[in-house]
Structure formats: C-alpha cells, structure tokens
Amino acid sequence: MIIGDKLPAFNLKGVDGEMSNQYAYADRYALLVVFTNNSCPVAVAYRNRIKNLLKRYEEDNLGIIRINSTTKNSEAESLEEMKKMYDDLKLPHLYLMDDDQTVAKAFGATKVPEAFLFNSKRELVYKGAIDDSWENENMVTRVYLEDAIEAALDGIDVDYPEIDPIGCDIVLK
User: Fold this and answer.
1) How far apart are CA 80 and CA 149, in angstroms?
2) Which residue of 48, 80, 95, 150 has the smallest Cβ count within 10 Å?
3) How far apart (Å, rounded) are the C-alpha atoms in residues 136 and 36?
4) Cβ of 56: how many Cβ atoms within 10 Å?
5) Per residue of the chain (173 residues), what is the pLDDT tens digit?
6) Where are the domains of the chain?
7) Where is the Thioredoxin domain positioned along the sequence (predicted)?
8) Cα separation, 34 vs 103, whole angstroms
C-alpha cells in the first residue's frame, strides 16, 4: 500500500469466534491496523504499548485491530493461542486471524509488528514502525505512530508517513 490508498476489504475470524471486516470501528475517526503475532520478540515487546495507545486515544475515536498473518504451521500462532494471549492481556480490541495471508498481502505487510493508520475517510496516512526502541520502552525518543495518530485525529497531514518497520519477517506462503 502507498499513502493515500483506501483500507482494503477483509473478512477475518477473531479470537472471539466472530467474523470481522473492514467496517469494524466504522464510527471511529481513525483506525489503526497492526500486523503482529504471539511469538516474535519484537511483537511481544510492543503488546502493552499498543494496548496503551487505545487507552490513551479511545476517547478521541481511535479504533485498533490486530491481525496475525503468521498462523500457518505454527502451534504458537493458532487461534487458541491467540485467544489465550488476548485473554491474559485483557486486550480491549479485535485480534483477527489471517491464516491464508490474503490481508497481509493486500496491505503489503512485511514485518510484525507493522502499523497501518487510516484517517476518517479510511485512507492510509501512516505505515511502518511504532517507535524507535523496541528493546526498552524507557529508551524511546521517537514515537512515530503516536505522532501519526495525533495528526490523523487532528485531521492534518502526518509529518513522517512512512518509517521502515522493525520486527520479524512475515514469511508469505
């Protein structure tokens, strides 16, 4: 995807057993889609940071969807393990399984975690890294995604709309 592209269509099963599509959170002013998984050390390091983004911006109408596209042939990435992690962390947003990787391909997602932020018109306004220090949250100096969320919620252009994501590769089948 390139900046300005529309949110791709999808229909995926979530850890709640329900199907969800691109219209989830249609009432929200901005939508964050994060490709993640249960086992990548970088994705694990960002679990609570992503959860905290929703806590911080939910009143400002941010919706968050996590998508796991690394579920094939991995017990750690099964729907059951996804649900366990979801329940353990008490995640307040959707966590969906992209087992055939069609959604990852549609987005052009290459890493976990990788963020895609859409404005109220569901146009892509940011893609890439969450911040500049996955190893230590206390060492973060650049909050790329948070800056992008602020801009999207304010209805202004994102200063740095693309930052290379850091994480584990999504191995496409």
Assistant:
1) 31
2) 80
3) 18
4) 12
5) 999 999 999 999 999 999 999 998 999 999 999 999 999 999 999 988 998 888 888 888 899 999 999 866 678 888 888 889 888 888 888 999 998 999 999 999 999 999 999 999 999 999 999 999 998 889 999 999 999 999 999 999 999 999 999 999 998 87
6) 11-169
7) 1-154
8) 12
Distance in angstroms (rounded) separating the CA atoms of residues 117 and 63:
10
Place of tokens 């976990």: 112
And the tokens for 18? 């329900």
Indicate the burial class of 162 (C-beta count within 10 angstroms; 0-12, 13-18, 19 or more): middle
Is residue 134 a contact partner of residue 156, using CB atoms and an 8 Å limit? no
Query: How far apart, in whole angstroms, are the C-alpha atoms of residue 133 and residue 46?
Result: 10
